[in-house]
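pinging the channel bc i need a second pair of eyes. not urgent but kinda urgent?? the chain im working w is below, pasted from the shared doc
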Amino acid sequence: MLRTNNAGAGRHTHALSLQQHTLLAFFGLTFVRSWSLWGLQSLLVDGNPISARWLGTIAAYGPTLAAIVLAALLHPKRQTAVWSQRRLWLAGAVLVGTVWLIER
């Protein structure tokens, strides 16, 4: 019996499945990331309020982080070029958003 290694085929089917269900993957990743951080934040409020506040701030960026992760997974070569061109704009936007959330 001939045995073959299908490790690369598994990655291909996951990528194909992700491309077919991009919206579902976005909402799933956003939900898991944001709500897990908000749940952890609710546990830390009494013991360490500063860490809890930062977790809430990071959780607010759940949809943005999910979009960046999915874009990198679906189009890795194109995102490398885009990331190198726009990383300063993204860093500035994250910094301004974080300051705005803290000052609220």
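so DSSP finds five helices and no strands in the chain. and The helical segments are 7-20, 22-44, 49-60, 62-74, 76-103. — does that match what u expected or am i reading it wrong
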